[in-house]
Amino acid sequence: MKSLTVEAKNALSDFVYDVNHKLMGDFVSMSNDEILRFQKMEKLLENKISRRFKIRRLDKDDFGYLIEHLYGQTGTAYEEYEYHLSKKKLDNETLIKYYDLIKPTRCLVEEKQRYLKIQQEDETVYVAYFTINSIVGELDFPSSEIFYYQQQQFTFPIDTSMNVEIVANRKALSTVRNKKKELKDLDNHAWQSDNETSSNVAEALESVNELETNLDQSKESMYKLSYVVRVSANDLDELKRRCNEVKDFYDDLSVKLVRPFGDMLGLHEEFLPASKRYMNDY
């Protein structure tokens, strides 16, 4: 009987939500109980992450500043920026402005093969994105020192996005072993064709064997990292100069960057807060 009462209450709540959603136009209602539930989940996740990393939760101003910065807005310092999020808290629900933070109509974005052209009302910004092609030296993880070096090295600002995906040990081992099988097939095909196995395949096979051993012995999870660098300028010549300077800087750290053809908009979207990694082949 109790479960039927709960189901009826939820059905009525959904009905009222749908009616309010249509009647209120620009505003949408959210149950305060639902908001509280998500806040508790957020706090639990924050506590888990803070055991390993020193973090700070983002607020509405952070989200607003990051998004407007990515779409070419300039002129306001981060410390002075404030995003106004319209909402009204009632007894059992909260009314929130329905429009998204991202407002594409504020600018025109044109995707070229190797850069984006972002036109605001009073200025134009050219943006290019780099991903990691290979790490030549002994650099296990692009650590925080790189960010400090960047701040000292460049006379212009650049942005960096790090997207970390945690893969459970069993799934990671399965992925690594499948990749190992693919590499062995390539090696066998070269041998059967009386050709030498390419150095890239040989190095990849050696790396995957080492990774398989580490995962099997440690029983730890695997971390898949996407590392994207964003460079912007007010004209194409300056963008080219800055891109060359950034590539040279990472070359000195044994990290080879590449600017993928036709992937600029996808990599741009990876910079948006809470977005997923754009592609798996880098």
Oligomer: single chain
Question: Strand percentage, roughly?
Answer: 15-25%
Rounded to the nearest angstrom, the distance between the terminal CA atoms is: 55 Å
* Topology pattern, helix = H, strand = E: HEHHEEEEEHEHHEHEH
What is the mean pLDDT? 81
Number of helices: 8
Rounded radius of gyration (Å)? 24 Å
Provide the helix percentage.
40-55%
Protein name: ATP/GTP-binding protein
Organism: Streptococcus pneumoniae
Write the layout of secondary structure elements.
Layout: H1 2-23, E1 27-31, H2 32-50, H3 60-70, E2 87-89, E3 93-97, E4 108-111, E5 116-119, E6 124-135, H4 145-153, E7 158-167, H5 169-192, H6 199-218, E8 222-233, H7 236-252, E9 255-258, H8 264-270
Antiparallel strand pairs: 1-3, 2-3, 4-5, 5-6, 6-8, 6-9, 7-8
